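As the next step, I selected for study one protein, both as residues and as discrete backbone shape codes, as given directly below:
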Amino acid sequence: MVNDLTESDSGEYQLKVNRQRDGWTFSPRVTVSVKALSQKPTVRVPPLTEGQQTTLTCTAPGLCSGSPPTITWMWKPTGDRESHLAGNVTDLVTEEMSDFTQRHVSTLTFKASSEHHHHTNVTCVVNFTGNVTTEETVTLTVIFPVPPSVVLPWVLAGISLTINVFATIFMMLLWNSRRKATPNQEDRTYMSLKKRECSPDYDVIARHPGSSSIFEGSC
């Protein structure tokens, strides 16, 4: 296995087995072409809130099996020279992906400040063996948390409006349902008085309670 490849390692390779007195050389040859590194590191930036601690991550490109790279964080405020990010904690983590491959991740932890970090460019620089360097730059955006004194009145107003709307709809439905279920005074019906034995000589007179109408009928 060849580690820490560079462009100068390009060429033809042939397998040769040496022993103390003799050896063997295999005739097939392979051509290896090493190209310049074109991949960039992957930088992940979570939402940044004023005064809160945050962590940025930078993952070196590729799955390496050789020497670990050097990962450096640089930052550049608008109009200033690039320098190291002050007031931070960095850490390099190596993840074993398999027996021969590794992933290298660097973290940058700091407390977000709109005064020092808003609209600043942060660059992750990855330096491999052989002075092979690649980098990625991101722009930070720091937001201010909304105080509860501003949010609470709007939330309460929204809840109150919602309750009023539902209450109005409920009252309208209830009024319509009662209007359909309650008949008018003129629509009230009366029940005939029935007798088992009724003579045609007698008339049945019925009067509804609370009404001045008298209904007459014959059996």
